[in-house]
Every structure is written in C-alpha cells, then in structure tokens.
Design brief:
This protein is of the alpha+beta class and 193 residues long. Helix content is 22%, strand content 35%. The chain has a 7-stranded antiparallel β-sheet. A hairpin with a 3-residue loop joins β4 (120-128) and β5 (132-144). The two termini are 34 Å apart.
Length: 193
C-alpha cells in the first residue's frame, strides 16, 4: 500500500476503512467519544451508522484513508470528511499523463458563478511544506446526492492533487467535502471561504 502522511485536528475521527476490522474500529471510536462527551450518548446509534456509511462509501470509492468530523458551531451542526486516494495517471488508452501540478491545474475546469449564490470553483497550484507543488481546486459545488439521483447537495469542496514520487505515474488525491448552508442575506463566495 502506498504511504502518505496527513494531519487532521484532534477532534476528527480517523479509522481504517477496509471491511475487515471496520465494525470493531467504529464501535471503539464511538465508545471513546461517548466517554469523553457524554452528551453524545443519545446519538450513539446515529453516529455509529454515519461512520459506518462514510467508511463504506470511502472504501467503495477506492480511498485509502478517511478522516471525518461532526461538530456544532453556534448551534449549527456541521460535518466534513477528507479522503485520500492514489490514482493512476494514465488516460483510457493507457498513455501516461503528466503529473506536473501546472499541467494538472490546466486540465481542470474553473466554474464562474453567473449570479450571487451560484456554484463556483477556483483552480490553482499551491506549494505544500515538505511536499512541493500540487494542483488544487476549491469552491462551492452542487454534487449529486447519489449516483443516478437528480437531487444535489451544496458542498464546500477542496481537492488537492500531489504527484507521487514512486512510481511517478501516480497521483495522491485528497478530497475534503463539507455541506454548505447558505442563508438568504449572506451567500458564500471565494472571499468568505
């Protein structure tokens, strides 16, 4: 399995997402959190179910790692996840694609909102400490609730593509979606993120 390092805040949940051992890990995590935060006790079943589903979805999508959080901010519940996947950098014909972050950024599409409150996406390159250059997208997008479902969920989304050192034909992709709530008088724009 490829190795990588990712740091998330202490309050986040981190656990193995592979089917073997997942159930025991989720149960242990929930038990620890309920001990630390007794107010969670009435929500034990819901939290357990949410973590099971998130871990299964992450594993089924090919992710190697998942971290997640669920907290209240001023009485507003917020959840977020981050997944890490290693992607092959080849097209459908098997030809190697560039793993240069500038080339990756050029191949990604920005979304310009037509009016306030519309979905948007920025594409850039960033210099990550101890890693080097990476391509990144960030914005507010409407993602399908499920495959084949016409409903969407507005999400704040960041994706970072880091060239894998060995073999150089791979990319490490981290993705961090979180639901957005947009109030009528205040919409989320690139300047408020």
């Amino acid at each position: 399995m490829p190795s990588f390092s990712l740091a998330v805040p202490e309050s986040w949940w981190e656990f193995g997402i592979r089917p073997e051992g997942r159930e025991a890990t989720v149960r242990t995590l929930v038990d620890e959190r309920v001990r630390e935060t007794p107010e969670l006790a009435p929500y034990r079943a819901e939290v357990t179910s949410m973590l099971r589903k998130m871990a299964k979805d992450a594993h089924d999508s090919g992710a190697l790692y998942m971290g997640c959080m669920a907290e209240n901010f001023d009485g507003i519940p917020l959840s977020a996840t981050v997944t890490v996947s290693v992607l092959g950098a080849k097209n459908k014909q098997g030809v190697a694609l560039s793993t240069d972050p500038r080339a990756i950024a050029e191949s990604l599409r920005s979304i310009t909102p037509r009016r306030e409150g519309d979905a948007w996406r920025k594409v850039t390159t960033v210099d990550l400490p101890d890693v080097g250059p990476a391509a990144r997208t960030y914005g507010v997008e409407d993602l399908p609730v499920a495959e084949g479902d016409s409903r969407t969920l507005r999400m704040a989304l960041t994706q970072t593509y880091v060239p894998y050192r060995e073999p150089p034909t791979r990319l490490c992709s981290s993705q961090g979606p979180a639901p957005c709530w947009i109030w009528p008088r205040r919409s989320m724009t690139s300047s408020t993120l």
